[in-house]
Amino acid sequence: MIHTRDILALRRYMLIGQLISILVLLFGILSVCLFINPSLIGIVSKQTNSYRDESIWLIVGIVFILFGVFFVVVFGKWSRRLLWIFQNIRPVQMNLSIKIRKGMDSNDYYAILSVDSTTEKNWRVSLYSPSWNARELQDQIISSKVYFDPKSQCPAVIETTQGLLWAMAGRSAIRI
How far apart are CA 125 and CA 110, in angstroms? Predict the structure, then answer.
């Protein structure tokens, strides 16, 4: 497959997100264990009274468990959805301009999509960091194929000659 690099990068990105979510989930489980019985996780008996029945451990544990489960599901579901859209939906030809906003610790990538230069139906799409050098296309207008999510009617995958661009999960695409 021609876009193997980009598909593997998406899977790697989602796997990292899921692993972080699992760590959050494990921290939540440890917090609940501190509330119920601290000796289960190796706390010495002299210190168990300072942890047991402290409601903060239960609250933190439940919140972290909920966040962990939620994000494990979201990361897996969104990556599978993007791949399904790319493989099963017919693309629409659109003009693409990539904008890069440089931050102190990372860069944010945005795609500006339009059918032609005169139409007002433009999209601004937040993108996952591409696996290829997107700076080559920064502020240029190029032709691309755009795959729309049939459920939300928003751009989900953008195919260029250099590679694929993946829309972020959630409400990452807005009309401008």
Answer: 5
Q: What value, to the nearest 5°, has the Cα angle with vertex 83 and ends 21 and 78?
A: 30
Q: Distance between CA 13 and CA 79 in Å, rounded?
A: 9
Phi-psi region of 160 (alpha: psi -120 to 50; beta: other; left: phi over 0): beta
pLDDT digits (tens, 9 = 90+) for 15-70: 998 999 999 999 999 999 888 888 888 887 788 777 788 889 899 999 999 999 99
Residue pair 151/160 in contact by the 8 Å Cβ criterion = no
Reported as a single tens digit per residue, the pLDDT across 129-164 is 888 888 888 878 889 999 999 998 999 999 998 889
Measured between alpha carbons, how far is 152 from 148 in angstroms, rounded to an integer? 8
Domain layout of the chain by residue ranges: 4-87, 91-175
- What is the edge-to-edge ordering of all strands in the sheet holding 155-159? 164-166, 155-159, 142-148, 92-102, 107-114, 123-127, 173-175
Q: What are the residue ranges of helices labelled H in 37-155?
A: 48-51, 55-88
The pTM of the full predicted model, rounded to 2 decimals, is: 0.80
